[in-house]
Amino acid sequence: MTRLILLSFRLHGALLGAGNRLTQGTGLSSARWQVLSAVARSVQPMPVAWVARDMGLTRQSVQRVADDLEAAGLISFQPNPHHKRAPVLLLTEKGQRAFAAITAKQVPWVNRLAEEAKVGEIETAIDILQMLCRRLETDQSR
Q1: CA-closest candidate to residue 80, choices 48, 47, 54, 52
Q2: Structural domains of the chain in order of their starting residue, each with its CATH number
Q3: What's the pLDDT tens digit per position in 77-94?
């Protein structure tokens, strides 16, 4: 398990580096792309706290990135009918264009990464990572 954890640290660093290369020339960093992607892919508008929870990050760190994305005109904060003090995040037209441009670069990249992997192997890896996330989240409450 320790080897898996250490390898996940290495993978995290490699993914951040790859994300920075993919976003080069877009005005986005990996962190901005991650938050923009979370907003773009959500089935319903979410407040910052929900985005942070889904990403496994602190609300404050996601708030800083969301503020940067708003300043760049990529997202907007809109009233939340369920909570007056927690606006929801929505992509602007500019944000939709930026997300589409990055996705156009990301899809071929991710397909190259997956070339030799079998669907069952990927699903097993997802199951293991989800189990570890659940256990780590449970451990935090102890």
Answers
A1: 47
A2: 2-140 (1.10.10.10)
A3: 999 888 888 899 999 999
